[in-house]
């Protein structure tokens, strides 16, 4: 197809893209409209120097935004042809999307697209009900469809061993005053277009908790309101750990999150064991898998919650020069 997307089509798709998750809700992306296509660019000004020194988190977030963009364009009838990291001289350009042949969206594309606006990180305790086997399978398929794997940590001893790795990584990170300062800086007591609202931050930690909470806001926790004793822990694994692998993992993450949302499940992310290299290696060895763990999710049936704020789409859109 010769004609490009219209600015209106791309603005609508970018409005879906910004609903993607990001470390501390920093939203480290810009969307550049160029010759009828759209490019996602890492916004280095919004990368967290202490919490994300390598840029892994920003690339995961941009990969997730890229998946939403692909889904929005497909759901609107003109899927994109995507090139990852298209310009060797501009490594921050995550992807360029141009129109492919128009076609009707599949039912799966429609329902995943419909889930974008309902997805949110649910950091509260989940109900103890297990995630049914057919949904576990769907989550694995979602990761595989995006060239990743989803490894479910099954059984009390495996979950306990994972908890130990995650808590120890959390302690390592928490010893760094710059890391703590960034977390505090991005926790929002007042309404804001970015950062983690304190009300979404989950209840304060207690010594008996199996998994570490990142601790945004530390909501009051009533006695006995413990987390589920055996959470479904899922580790997203990519083939490797290059910048491209991380962008691929971000897309797979978002497909898994939307598949979970569409199935009525709640998810929270915990990335401490990914951010500490020794913990990540321990996790990889404990799973006995090739590839590189890129994210960990806690999945279950959750209490109601609500999506967190985002910046306006026009604040992250760079229009073609000719239209300025
Ligand atoms: C790379 C990455 C790492 C994250 N790590 C954590 C984490 O360790 N703990 C946590 O509670 N949330 C984590 N999150 C979730 C973000 O805090 C969340 O996506 C952001 O605040 C926006 O909120 P939403 O997911 O409700 O839209 C992570 C998200 C990304 C993309």
From TrEMBL:
Superkingdom as given in the UniProt entry: Bacteria
InterPro entries: Nitroreductase-like, Nitroreductase/BluB
PANTHER family assigned to the protein according to its UniProt record, in alphabetical order: NAD(P)H NITROREDUCTASE RV3131-RELATED, NADPH NITROREDUCTASE
Protein name: Nitroreductase family protein
Ranges of compositional bias, category Low complexity: 192-203
Region (Disordered): 185-208
Gene Ontology MF terms in the entry: oxidoreductase activity
UniProt-listed SUPFAM superfamilies: FMN-dependent nitroreductase-like (SSF55469)
